[in-house]
Structure formats: C-alpha cells, structure tokens
Amino acid sequence: MAAQHHIRELRDEDIDQVVAIWHAAGVARPWNDPLKDITFARRDAHSTILVAEIGNRVVATAMVGEDGHRGWVYYLATDPQHQGQGLGRAMMQAAEAWLIARGVWKLQLLVREENTQVFDFYGKFGFRDTRTVCMQKVLQP
C-alpha cells in the first residue's frame, strides 16, 4: 500500500529535491537549466510547479502552465523509489484541475519520440498523437 501523499505548489525549500527528482527520473536535459526553468515557471500566475510530498519529502512533480490558448504540462516526474504508486496519475489530475480552475479547456504536452514507455500512460488520460511537428528556435542561448 502506498503512503499518503499531499499535493501543493512548490516552495523555495523544495527546489533541491525537485531538481534531484528530475535527474533521477530522467526528465532533465543537459541543455535545460533546471533552476532557470523553475524560476521562469514561478514568475507569474500563468504557471506553477506542483509537488507531491510524503511526510516532508517531495516525491513527484509537474510543471503546469497556460499560454492564453492551451495548457501545458512539463517535468511530470516521480522519484524512482516511489514509481508505480499512482503518483504520476495524481500529478496529472492535479495539473488538469489547476488548468480547469483557470478556464483552460485544452491540455498539451510534449513527449520525446524515444520515450515510448510513457505513451500508454498518457493514453489512459485521453491524450492522443496529434500528428503535428514541434519546431523550435532558441532565442537566447
């Protein structure tokens, strides 16, 4: 049986734990500075980082935001020691609730093409491949 968790918004004292989870879960990438991403996500009311905690320990994360047209989820991650306990599902539900409370009606996420093991997970939430191509241009290195 999984331990009881509590989901809330990120606090300053959580940052080191969150970055460690992102690395351990494999969602961090060398070209993305996690501290810069965290600071940017917390800059205004259009985005936040949700965390699940058990006791005083952060065990899962989801960065969620909206761009005026769609909601987005990034950095959905669970500490590998706590995977398989429903925390990913709980974080997605919390992210959806955060967006719905703001009137957002459409949710998008990006999945790396090689990350095939999560396709079924997201499919259970109703996500589907939209057969679109994501293009990117880096404005500031």
Q: Give the total of beta strands.
A: 5
CATH homologous superfamily caption: Gcn5-related N-acetyltransferase (GNAT)
User: What is the top-level CATH class?
Assistant: Alpha Beta
The CATH topology turns out to be Aminopeptidase
Roughly how much helix do the residues carry, as a percent range?
25-40%
Ends distance: 45 Å
Strand content: 15-25%
| Mean pLDDT across residues | 93
What's the helix count?
4
Can you name the CATH architecture? 3-Layer(aba) Sandwich
Low-confidence stretches: none
Q: Tell me which oligomeric state these chains represent.
A: single chain
Radius of gyration: 15 Å
Strand order of the largest sheet: 1-2-3-4-5
Structural class: alpha+beta
Q: How many structural domains does the protein architecture include?
A: 1
Sheet of most strands: 5 strands, mixed
SSE string, helices as H and strands as E? EHHEEEHEH
Shape: globular
